[in-house]
Design goal:
mainly alpha; globular; 7 helices; Four Helix Bundle (Hemerythrin (Met), subunit A)
Amino acid sequence: MSAARVLGWLAVVALAAGLIAGFGYAPREVVQGNVQRIMYLHLPSILAGYLSFIVAGAASVAYLVTKRLSWDRCAAAAAEIGVLFAALMIVSGSIWGRPTWGVWWTWDARLTSTTVLLLTWVAYLLLRAMVEDPDARARFAAVVGILGVAQIPIVHLSVRWWRTLHQPSTILGPGPATIDAAFKLPLALNAVAFTLLFAYFLTRRMEIARLEEEA
C-alpha cells in the first residue's frame, strides 16, 4: 500500500473519530449551545491553513535557494490546499458568528486580516496561472508566497493588537490553553485529522503535478 493511501485511510479514521467525539463525547456548551460544536471544524481548519501556508512558504524559500522545480511543485500544492482550508475557516466562522454575534460578517481585525491572507494566496495561484515560463513562474510565485507567510503572525496576533469582536486565541496563545478539558479531546482529534488530511492532499497533489509535467 502506498504512503498516500495510508495517509488517506488514517485521515478518514481520524475524521470519523473526531466527528464522534465532537457530537457524541463533548458536552453541550452552556452559553452558546450546540452551535459551539462548529469549533471542531473551525479551529482545525485554521491550524491546517496555517500549516499549508507555512509549508508553501518554506518550499518557496527552498526553491529560491536550490532552483529545484520539485520545491516549486510542493509550494504550489500546499498553497492550493491552504486556500481550501482558509476558505473553510472563513465560512465556518461566519456560520458560528451569526448566532453568536448576530451578524454573518463584520470588519473585525481577525476576520479582515484572515481575508487579506486568503486573497494573497488566491493572487499567488492566479499569478501561477498567468506566467507560462516555469522558472519565472516559480521565482515570482516564491516571492509572493514568502510575503503570504509573513501575514500569518499578523492574523494570529490581531486579537491582541487591536480591539476585536473575535475572542482571543483558544490555543497557540501566549499562555496556557483556556479551554475546558471536556472539549480538548475532540478538538485534538480533529486537529490531528485535518493534519493528516493536509498530508494526504499534499502527497496526491504533488503526484498529480509531477504527472502533468511529464505529460
